[in-house]
Amino acid sequence: MSFGQEAVKLSISAKKSNDINSENILIWFFVTPVREIDKGKYPDLNKQIYHYLEFNNIWRNDLYNYGSNRYVDKFYSSESTIIEIDSLVKGVFSGNVGIGAGAEGNEQPPLYHKIRNGQFNLVLEK
């Protein structure tokens, strides 16, 4: 499925610090066909509203990318709820994110992280 010009996207991101390799979280919301993103729980496949959570974590001075993908493995799933969306975007998120690939043995970074009680509260700029 393509989310090119045929979908509305909203992304929310936050970094731990201003360092270029800082740990960070990114939440994507996709709605198809094109329409406004509104309050509610995501993903909602009945409404064709999709959601993806990404977490970039530092382990032994390297930044590793973790993501959720409930279509491949239910364990690596996440959800977000948008509570308010007008001049503010306010909500909560949680989930399990897994790493796509990594080294083996002692050099293996953690294979997944559990994210609980995440919150976002952002002012929309128009």
What do these coordinates show?
The chain contains no helices and eight strands. The protein is mainly beta and 126 residues long. Strands 1, 2, 3, 4, 5, 6, 7 and 8 form an eight-stranded antiparallel beta sheet that branches. Strand 6 (78-85) and strand 7 form a beta hairpin. The two termini are 29 Å apart.
Over the alpha carbons, how many angstroms does the gyration radius reach?
15 Å
**What's the oligomerization state?**
single chain
Would you identify the regions where 5 or more consecutive residues have pLDDT less than 50? none
Distance between the termini: 29 Å
Mean pLDDT: 81
Q: What about the largest sheet?
A: 8 strands, antiparallel
Summary keywords:
about 130 residues, globular
How would the blueprint of this fold be written?
Layout (H helix, E strand, L loop, with lengths): L7 E8 L8 E8 L8 E3 L6 E11 L2 E6 L10 E8 L2 E12 L12 E12 L3
Antiparallel strand pairs: 1-2, 2-4, 3-6, 4-5, 5-7, 6-7, 7-8
Provide a compact summary of the structure.
The chain has 126 residues and is mainly β.
